[in-house]
Write a structure and sequence with these properties.
Protein name: Dihydropteridine reductase
CATH superfamily of the largest domain: Nucleotide-binding domain of ferredoxin-NADP reductase (FNR) module
Radius of gyration: 18 Å
Shape: globular
Distance between the termini: 39 Å
Order of helices and strands: EEEEEHEEHEEHEHEH
InterPro entries: FNR_nucleotide-bd (IPR039261), Riboflavin_synthase-like_b-brl (IPR017938)
CATH class of the largest domain: Alpha Beta
CATH topology of the largest domain: Rossmann fold
Number of helices: 5
CATH architecture of the largest domain: 3-Layer(aba) Sandwich
């Protein structure tokens, strides 16, 4: 496993609680849309064993052509050790990145694609939307449904409905409206459903989709194949 030490090149305050860290991209590091990465802070490998408290699995919120590894995360007033250190870092400070993998790459199968997210989980879908807008081939329509507080609105210049591109965006701030939207999408038995959020959020969405008859092969979550099976159990 190769560990890349890189510097923070830009910090963007998306909202009072959400920041995006743009990291310098090592020359030989590449990724596809929907990728995640392990982000580690200085000192994580100083001892005999890695300090797991200083390592997090994070989604990459940028695409390759942006020439930066983007990490978008929430920094609440009450924070873990990792988030406390991360929140105090400045441009020029070093972090480590390793183990890049994508479980959310766009599937171009001439179907409708639905992106279901909660809050800052929308950052995982930013690269998918950018790739779709650049090349919409073999995707009928792209729909994004996000549940967020009014103060958490992210990437509004990108997540804007574009009829000419067959791209539809809906943001709601109430659970009832959100799940009504999921049930409406689930009437499309051929659609591909991408879900990003907490484990509880994944379970609730999957339950609605499975009840509507959506096959597990059409439900995509950012989990390792073994963990994925724990969420998407085939019917007996």
């Amino acid at each position: 496993m190769e560990i890349y030490w890189t510097k923070i090149k830009e910090i963007i305050e998306e909202t009072p609680e959400i920041k995006t860290f743009h990291l310098e991209c090592p020359e030989d590091v590449t990724w596809e849309e929907g990728a995640h990465i392990h982000l580690a802070l200085e000192g994580f490998n100083a001892g005999e064993k890695p300090n797991r408290a200083l390592v997090r699995h994070m989604s990459i919120s940028t695409v390759q052509k942006e020439a930066a590894i983007g990490i978008t995360t929430r920094l609440k007033a009450e924070r873990s050790e990792f988030k406390t250190i991360l929140g105090n870092l400045s441009i020029g400070d070093q972090v480590a990145v390793f183990k890049i993998k994508s479980n959310l790459a766009l599937r171009r199968e001439d179907r409708n694609v639905y992106l279901l997210s909660s809050g800052v989980g929308l950052a995982s879908f930013r690269p998918l939307v950018l790739q779709y807008l650049a090349d919409g081939s073999k995707i009928k329509q792209l729909h994004s449904l996000n549940i967020s507080a009014q103060t958490d609105m992210l990437f509004q210049s990108i997540f804007t409905s574009q009829a000419a591109k067959n791209f539809d965006v809906t943001v709601v701030n109430q659970r009832a409206a959100y799940y009504a939207g999921v049930k409406a999408f689930a009437k499309d038995r051929e659609g591909l459903f991408y879900i990003v959020g907490s484990d509880e959020f994944l379970e609730q969405n999957i339950a609605i989709l499975r009840e509507a008859g959506i096959p597990i092969e059409q439900i995509i979550i950012d989990k390792h194949p073994m963990k994925r099976e724990l969420f998407l159990v085939k019917d007996e």
